[in-house]
Design a protein that fits this description.
Layout: H1 2-27, H2 42-53, H3 59-74, H4 90-102, H5 105-127, H6 146-235, H7 241-267, H8 283-291, E1 295-302, H9 310-331, E2 335-342, E3 347-355, H10 361-373, H11 376-385, E4 389-395, E5 398-406, H12 417-423, H13 436-447
Parallel strand pairs: 1-2
Antiparallel strand pairs: 2-3, 3-5, 4-5
Helix pairs in contact: 1-2, 1-4, 2-3, 2-4, 3-4, 3-5, 4-5, 4-6, 5-6, 6-7, 7-9, 8-9, 9-11
Length: 448
């Protein structure tokens, strides 16, 4: 049914026009005076045929053909209807049915109003003694139009409206049927889309849950391995160097595996491909993006850069990104930020200082508390997973963040203190203490 209606919607009007013209030619073949060109009904038939043929493609042009026919007959440019071919006017109502089927709402109202007015003009043309001369079943009235229009005008007008309503009903029913089918198809598509979305959501939630569980298990297990290896190495300094080296290798491998596992879990997309992870080389682009109308950043660097692992580079990038984001969030546009990379020690030290907006004592205390309590947990966790540490807190008119990411044990440190800094994130609280600045920042974060 749908293919047939689709074909009829596109080609039904031209086909109806051909049938309309052909039937009239066959029906009037014996009354044309021997030639189609000399027949009085040729021009009305031609105009109504064109009105039907163009109803689907150019509805306003179709209405124009009807208006041209009626205006031409009123002005006596087009021959009036004879008593045996007045029904050519029905072509206007057939065209109306196609217009109501295929045209938008606004054009439908215009077509309906035009056909009501056209029916009134047709009634006058068919009943007036000056034009129609009685249309076949009404007697000619040579004494004027008033009596004829009063006696028979409403009857003929109602008949024309009835024919128009029948054609309009067919067109509207076809339009409603197709709209109903379209609504059903849309509803089915929406339902299918909702089902697919629900399935994807369930799969994504399950994937996230598994990733979190896997991360928690790996983070706990590998952190314990690294902490125990570092603790044993620090407490067993009199052991052979081979044992100390083995313990150091175990701790480093555990920390590296933990960072790589986190990078893989965070970087896997829905299609299973691993997304490129940010590196230190991406920090200049990040700074440029934040500087464009947002922050005033002064970046500096000291020392000779040393190659870091992929996980450590990602941790450094994320820490800088979080610091700049927090500076924009809490300080607003135009906030002064100073960023320094120090490569002179046993690891990379990041110093980030952002200006604190002026506020009253109470507001300043609340702002400082909220700054300490937000976003620092993630930065501190990244620094710890990279084998380093992070401190943060207000310092006068600035909010400072200091992060340390080791890139190797200091060769000049015989007692392994450099390694302690690198492994402090995994030390057991009972056997080691955090740096005073880190402890103070952690206490402030806990209070927030």
């Amino acid at each position: 049914m749908e293919p047939i209606l689709k074909f009829a919607r596109q080609w039904g009007a031209p086909a109806a026009a051909v049938i309309f013209f052909s039937l009239w030619c066959v029906g009037e073949a014996g009354r044309m005076g021997g030639s189609l060109l000399s027949w009085e009904g040729l021009w009305p038939l031609a105009l109504m045929t064109l009105a039907i043929a163009s109803a689907t493609w150019k509805p306003l042009l179709s209405l124009g053909f009807t208006v041209v026919l009626l205006a031409g007959q009123l002005l006596r440019v087009v021959p009036p209807m004879a008593s045996n071919h007045w029904a050519i006017y029905v072509g206007s109502f057939i065209a109306l049915g196609f217009i109501l089927w295929t045209s938008p709402r606004r054009v439908r109202f215009i077509a309906a109003g035009t056909n009501v007015a056209a029916a009134a003009v047709m009634t006058f043309l068919m009943l007036s003694w000056r034009y129609g001369n009685g249309v076949g079943w009404f007697s000619p009235a040579a004494s004027g139009d008033r009596w004829m229009l009063q006696e028979n005008g409403w009857q003929l007008f109602a008949l024309l409206l009835l024919i128009s309503a029948a054609c309009s009903a067919v067109g509207l029913l076809l339009a409603l049927y197709q709209e109903r089918g379209s609504l059903f198809r849309s509803r089915e598509q929406v339902q299918n889309s909702l089902k697919e979305t629900e399935i994807e959501l369930i799969v994504e939630q399950e994937r996230i849950r598994i990733a979190r569980d896997l991360h928690d298990v790996l983070a706990h297990s590998l952190a314990v391995i690294a902490a125990q290896a570092d603790g044993t190495r620090y407490l067993s300094k009199d052991q052979p160097k081979a044992i100390l080296n083995a313990l150091d290798t175990i701790a480093r491998s555990a920390r590296s595996a933990l960072v790589d596992a986190q990078r893989v879990i965070e970087g896997v997309r829905d299609d299973g491909m691993v997304t490129p992870q940010p590196r230190l080389s991406d920090i200049p682009a990040l700074i440029d993006g934040m500087q464009r109308g947002s922050l005033k950043i002064q970046s500096s660097e000291s020392g000779i850069p040393v190659e870091l692992s992929a996980g450590q580079e990602m941790a450094a990038f994320r820490i800088v990104q979080e610091c700049l984001t927090n500076a924009l969030k809490h300080g607003g546009r135009g906030t002064d930020v100073r960023l320094h990379f120090d490569w002179s020690g046993p690891g990379l030290t990041l110093h980030v200082a952002s200006a604190v907006t002026a506020a009253g004592p109470a507001e300043g205390a609340d702002a400082a508390t909220s700054r300490i309590g937000r976003g620092l947990a993630g930065m501190r966790e990244r620094a710890h997973l990279a084998g380093g540490w992070l401190t943060a807190g207000p310092d006068g008119e600035h909010f400072r963040v200091t992060a340390f990411i080791p890139y190797g044990r200091d060769p000049g440190t015989a007692d392994g203190s450099g390694g302690a800094d690198a492994g402090g994130a995994f030390d057991d609280p009972a056997t080691s203490e955090a740096p005073p600045a880190l402890a103070a920042a952690q206490e402030a974060d806990d209070r927030a």
